[in-house]
Amino acid sequence: MITVEHETQPRNGCECDENQLRLFPCLSVVSDDAVVAIARKSFVKRYWRGDVLFKASDKAKFFFIVERGAIQLHNNSEDAREVEIRVLTEGNFYCGTPTCARNDNTVNALAVEDTSVIAIPRDDFVSVIHSGLTEFGIEVLTMACTRVKQLSTMMRSIERHSC
């Protein structure tokens, strides 16, 4: 499958609705100035049904809030079956472990219907999250994300062996 992006358009000079960005739990507690700065760099991306947003091996460039439509998050098993992890719908978000543990995606994302998302550049997002943390806090967050990634890998391994 080929990753496809359609009609990447900024809204009103690149600004997204700050209230929608506050749907991210990690942005719900940051300063208004930080959310405004992120909103200025965020934009709407549209995908058609069947478009691949990203693959598990891709570097994470953006985090998403689903504005409308639906996105299936899945992994592929060793026998090439798609193992659905979750379907994201309006208001759901994807930021995953790329926030702090390496910057690659851990799942595949597929638009299962025509979809629009608010895309937040990864580097800007991570910068805001890290700006309120001490070095120790960043290390703890990174270790927690790494652990979540390890547990996800273990679960996929168990799933493969149970079939």
UniProtKB/TrEMBL annotation:
Coiled coil: none annotated. SMART domains: cNMP. InterPro entries: cNMP-bd_dom, cNMP-bd_dom_sf, RmlC-like_jellyroll. Residues 26-129 form the Cyclic nucleotide-binding domain. It holds the Pfam family cNMP_binding. This is Crp/FNR family transcriptional regulator. It comes from Candidatus Magnetominusculus xianensis.
